[in-house]
C-alpha cells in the first residue's frame, strides 16, 4: 500500500474547506489515518500547512484528573513543561513543536499554535472551572472555531457541552465536584497555586464516550448531520468530521432545556419518551 504524504493530507483538509487563516481544534486517532510517510510528525505538519501562521491550530493535551489530583495530594506537583499529553501521539508531537503554547491547567490543558494561540490559552487559570469564558473552550465557542474529529466519534465534539455546564447557564444536573487547591508549574515555568473544579467522576460514568453510551453517540451523530452542523470527510483512510463550535453550543443548549444532555442514559431516554429512541423528536 502506498504511503500517504503531507500533500495528500492537506488536500483532504482542503476538500472540507479548511485552509489558510482558519482556526481549528483537532481531536485525532493516528492509527485510523493509515500508512503516513513520516507518521504523526507529518500529520501535524499537514495541519500546520493547511491553516498557515495566519490561522490557529489547537489540540487537547489532557491528562487523567484522578492521577493528577492524587499526585498533587501526595506532594508531587505537575510540571506542564514536561507533562506528556495523554490524548494520543499526534497531540504529544504537537505539544513539543516549536512555537506551540500550552494553557495553564493541571489536567485539562490545551495546546495552540498560530495567530491566536496566546489569546486562546492565556486565560485558562483565571477561573476554577475548566471551561469558563476565558478558557480555551470559551474562546473556541466565542470565535466559532471549527472542531475537527479525525478517526474518532462525535463524543469529543460534544465537549462543547462543558462550556454550557461551566458558565452561568441553567443545566439539568450537577456535574461538578467541590473546588480543591492545586499547586503546579505552568508551561512558562511559573509556580501556580489556585483552586480548580473538576467534573464529577461518578456523574461522568454516563457521559457520552463512556462504555454503554454508543446509543447517544450514534443518535447525536445522526442529529447533527441531519441539521447540517456536522460534515463528513476522509482524512487519509480515517472517517472524519468537522463542526463549527457555536452552532453546536446553541443546539446543545436547546437540547439541555428539554433534559437531553451528554449524560443522558438510554433508560432515562426511554422513560422520557415511552421507549421511543428516535431523534426526530429532539
Characterise this structure.
The protein contains 11 helices and 10 strands. The protein has helices at 6-15, 30-33, 39-51, 65-73, 89-95, 117-121, 136-142, 161-166, 214-226, 245-257, 266-272, and strands at 23-28, 56-60, 78-79, 101-102, 110-114, 146-150, 180-185, 191-196, 230-235, 238-244. The protein has a 7-stranded mixed β-sheet, with helices on both faces. A 3-stranded mixed β-sheet has the order 3-7-8. The mean pLDDT is 94. The longest helix is centred in the N-terminal third of the chain and has 13 residues, at 39-51. The termini are far apart. The protein is an alpha/beta fold. Helix 1 packs across helix 3 and helix 3 crosses helix 5 (89-95).
Helicity, as a percent range: 25-40%
Radius of gyration: 19 Å
The overall average pLDDT, rounded, is 94
Q: Profile the largest sheet.
A: 7 strands, mixed
Discrete helix count: 11
Q: Care to count the β-strands?
A: 10
Low-confidence stretches: none
Relative strand content = 15-25%
Strand order of the largest sheet: 4-5-2-1-6-10-9
Q: What is the CA-CA span between the terminal residues?
A: 43 Å
Q: Which structural class do the helices and strands define? A: alpha/beta
Q: SSE order in H/E notation?
A: HEHHEHEHEEHHEHEEHEEHH
* Spatial shape: globular
Amino acid at each position: 500500500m502506498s504511503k500517504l504524504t503531507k500533500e495528500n493530507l492537506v488536500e483532504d483538509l482542503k476538500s472540507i474547506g479548511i485552509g489558510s487563516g482558519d482556526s481549528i481544534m483537532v481531536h485525532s486517532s493516528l492509527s485510523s489515518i493509515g500508512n503516513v510517510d513520516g507518521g504523526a510528525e507529518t500529520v501535524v505538519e499537514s495541519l500546520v500547512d493547511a491553516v498557515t501562521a495566519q490561522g490557529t491550530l489547537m489540540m487537547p493535551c489532557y491528562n487523567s484528573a484522578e492521577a493528577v489530583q492524587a499526585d498533587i495530594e501526595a506532594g508531587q506537583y505537575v510540571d506542564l513543561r514536561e507533562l506528556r499529553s495523554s490524548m494520543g501521539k499526534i497531540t504529544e508531537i504537537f505539544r513539543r513543536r516549536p512555537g506551540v503554547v500550552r494553557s495553564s491547567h493541571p489536567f485539562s490543558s490545551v495546546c495552540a499554535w498560530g495567530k491566536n494561540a496566546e489569546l486562546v490559552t492565556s486565560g485558562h487559570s483565571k477561573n476554577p472551572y475548566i471551561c469558563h469564558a476565558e478558557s480555551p473552550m470559551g474562546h473556541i465557542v466565542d470565535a466559532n472555531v471549527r472542531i475537527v474529529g479525525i478517526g474518532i466519534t462525535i463524543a469529543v465534539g460534544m465537549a462543547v457541552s462543558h462550556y454550557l455546564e461551566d458558565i452561568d447557564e441553567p443545566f439539568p444536573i450537577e456535574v461538578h465536584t467541590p473546588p480543591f487547591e492545586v499547586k503546579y508549574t505552568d508551561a512558562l515555568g511559573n509556580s501556580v497555586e489556585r483552586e480548580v473544579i473538576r467534573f464529577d467522576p461518578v456523574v461522568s460514568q454516563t457521559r457520552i464516550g463512556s462504555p454503554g453510551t454508543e446509543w447517544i453517540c450514534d443518535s447525536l451523530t445522526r442529529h447533527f448531520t441531519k441539521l447540517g452542523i456536522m460534515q463528513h470527510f476522509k482524512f487519509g483512510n480515517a472517517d472524519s468530521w468537522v463542526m463549527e463550535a457555536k452552532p453546536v453550543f446553541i443546539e446543545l443548549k436547546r437540547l439541555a432545556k428539554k433534559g437531553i444532555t451528554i449524560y443522558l442514559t438510554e433508560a432515562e431516554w426511554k422513560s422520557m419518551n415511552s421507549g421511543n429512541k428516535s431523534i426526530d423528536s429532539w
